[in-house]
Specification:
single chain; alpha/beta; Pantoate--beta-alanine Ligase, Chain: A,domain 2; six-stranded parallel β-sheet; three-stranded antiparallel β-sheet; 10 helices; about 40% helix; about 20% strand; globular; binds adenosine monophosphate
C-alpha cells in the first residue's frame, strides 16, 4: 500500500496497534537494491507489519551534494516492497514532512542534534550537518510510525552508531536492529550511488573492499598496530582513487584505536570518478 501522507500512515498504524501487532520500520531514500531488500526481508520476518519509508531527505544533504540528481525510482521501489511483503510504502514529499513553507534551516525547524564527539569525525567532517538531518528525519519517522523495531544497515556504520546513541539518550521506545552489509560477488558494497559509476569505475571501486578485507586478514594473522594496518591499504590505491579517510575506531564510542581489537571497525571513504563511496569492516 503506497501512502503519501502522515495522516494516512497514522490511521493505519493505529488500527494495527489496536490489534496488538508489532510494527517494523525500514527508513530508506529509495532507489532500492538488494541491500535495502535484506533489511525489508528481516523486518517482514521479525514483525507482524512492515513500513518502508522512501524519502530523499533534503536536510541531510549539504550544499553542493547530489540532492537534485539522487536517483528516484518510486514505482520500482513500491513494486519490490510489495513483492517482499512490506505492508506500507510511505513516500511523503518534503512539504508533507517539513510543512508549508518547508523552510529547512535550523533557524526555523526543530532539529535533533547528535553529540559533537560522534559527528566531528569520519563522514561528519566533510558532511557538516548531515547527521543532524539524519537524526531529525529518523526521529520524525519514529514519531509517525511508532515502530517496535527499526532496521538499519551496517553499510552506514557511523549513522547506525549515532542513531543507537539517539535512541538511548532520548529514551525512544524502539529497538534498533543492525543488519549486515550486502555486497556484490566482487566485494563492492551495494549503494544507490553506485549507479553514478561507469563499468570501469565499478572495477576501480573494488579497491575499497579489497583493502578492507586485506586489513582484516592481517589482523587475523595477529597484526594489531593500526598505523601498520593502515599502511597496507596504499598498495590498493592509485590515481583513480581520492582517499578521504581510512580510520580505525571503536564500534560503540567511535574513539580512535591505535591498537586494533575485536571491537574495532575500519572505516573508509574515497571518491572514484568523483563519486563519494563509503565502506567499513568489523575486525571481529
Ligand atoms: P539509504 O537509502 O542509502 O538511506 O539506505 C537506507 C538503509 O539501507 C540504511 O540503513 C543503509 O545502511 C541500508 N543499506 C544501504 N546499502 C546497504 C548495503 N549494501 N547493505 C546493507 N544495508 C544497506
Amino acid at each position: 500500500m503506497l501512502l503519501h501522507t502522515i495522516k494516512e500512515v497514522r490511521e493505519q498504524i493505529k488500527e494495527w496497534k489496536k490489534q496488538g501487532l508489532t510494527v517494523g520500520l525500514v527508513p530508506t531514500m529509495g532507489a532500492l537494491h538488494n541491500g535495502h531488500k535484506s533489511l525489508i526481508e528481516k523486518s517482514v520476518e521479525k514483525c507482524d507489519k512492515t513500513v518502508v519509508s522512501v524519502f530523499v531527505n533534503p536536510i541531510q544533504f549539504c550544499p553542493g551534494e547530489d540532492l537534485d540528481k539522487y536517483p528516484r525510482t518510486l514505482d520500482a521501489d513500491n513494486k519490490l516492497c510489495d513483492e517482499i511483503g512490506a505492508d506500507i510504502v510511505f513516500a511523503p514529499n518534503p512539504k508533507e514532512m517539513y510543512g508549508e513553507g518547508h523552510i529547512l534551516s535550523n533557524d526555523f525547524l526543530t532539529y535533533v542534534i547528535p553529540p559533537y564527539f560522534y559527528t566531528d569525525k569520519l563522514c561528519g567532517k566533510s558532511r557538516v550537518g548531515h547527521f543532524d538531518g539524519v537524526c531529525t528525519v529518523v526521529n520524525k519517522l519514529f514519531n509517525i510510525v511508532q515502530p517496535d523495531f527499526a532496521f538499519f544497515g551496517k553499510k552506514d556504520m557511523q549513522q547506525l552508531i549515532i542513531l543507537k546513541k539517539m535512541v538511548q539518550d532520548l529514551n525512544i521506545p524502539v529497538e534498533i536492529i543492525p543488519c549486515p552489509i550486502v555486497r556484490e560477488e566482487s566485494g563492492l558494497a551495494l549503494s544507490s550511488r553506485n549507479k553514478y559509476l561507469t563499468e570501469q569505475g565499478k572495477i576501480n571501486a573494488l579497491a575499497l573492499s579489497k583493502l578492507l578485507f586485506n586489513i582484516k586478514a592481517c589482523y587475523n594473522k595477529g597484526v594489531v598496530d593500526t598505523k601498520y594496518l593502515g599502511e597496507t591499504a596504499y598498495s590498493f590505491l592509485n590515481d583513480n582513487h581520492s582517499l578521504e579517510y581510512l580510520e580505525f575506531r571503536d564500534k560503540d564510542t567511535l574513539e580512535e584505536k591505535t591498537i586494533a581489537d575485536d571491537n574495532t571497525v575500519v572505516f573508509i571513504a574515497a571518491r572514484v570518478e568523483n563519486v563519494r563511496l563509503i565502506d567499513n569492516i568489523e575486525l571481529r
